[in-house]
Design a protein that fits this description.
The protein is an alpha+beta fold and about 190 residues long. The protein is about 20% helix and about 30% strand.
């Protein structure tokens, strides 16, 4: 099986550090790449084995990851997340099948490796659906400053027979983050947690 990429969307959301901030870091740059694919399972009723879609998701994951990293430009990537909206002719499980580790491994490679699991969120929806895609530090889940997300509205997608697959990356944590926890500079273990 090969997933048919019907369209792709790219969003750059850059927040400058505001005057009066105690933050001396660079602007917060978040990138979202949305790939709208034909849902290979739409309209088929219950399909027990979704493994062909899982395997096919790697190529789309690789393409979307390359687009996201290119849009980040010279900024180092510190956090990532993923999400999907499946059209109303499909099941939420179809979106989850296309977002497994097979889809995500190309993202890990594209960002120079990532030890922490990728946070994700999926839902069913019609064109214009809004989704919040969560973000977390790519190397250590307990870095609270990087708990963030990006809100996206998908114009004219997904159609009933489509799935919108989403990758979000960011170059840093929240501006003026100050709720404690492990700092990114203090990551010491290589277990994806600390």
């Amino acid at each position: 099986m090969k997933l048919q990429l019907r369209r792709s969307l790219l969003m750059v959301d850059q927040h400058e550090v505001p005057p009066g901030s105690q933050d001396s870091g660079p602007p917060l740059r978040r990138i979202a790449v949305i790939g709208v694919v034909a849902n290979p399972y739409a309209g088929q009723g219950f399909v027990a084995d979704l493994s062909a879609g899982i395997a096919a998701s790697e190529a789309v994951g690789r393409e979307l990851s390359a687009m996201a990293v290119a849009a980040m430009g010279p900024h180092a990537i510190e956090s990532y997340g993923k999400g999907a909206v499946v059209g109303l002719g499909g099941e939420q499980e179809h979106a989850n099948a296309l977002l497994t580790t097979v889809f995500a491994e190309p993202l890990r490679a594209a960002v120079g490796g990532g030890l922490a699991w990728l946070p994700s969120f999926t839902k069913r929806g019609a064109p214009g659906t809004v989704i919040d895609v969560p973000l977390a530090h790519k190397d250590a889940l307990y870095v609270r400053s990087h708990y963030d997300g990006m809100t996206l509205m998908l114009p004219d997608a997904p159609q009933p027979d489509e799935v919108a697959l989403i990758i979000v990356i960011a170059n840093r944590g929240r501006i003026d983050a100050r709720v404690g926890g492990l700092a990114a500079a203090e990551i010491s273990r290589r277990d994806g947690l600390r």
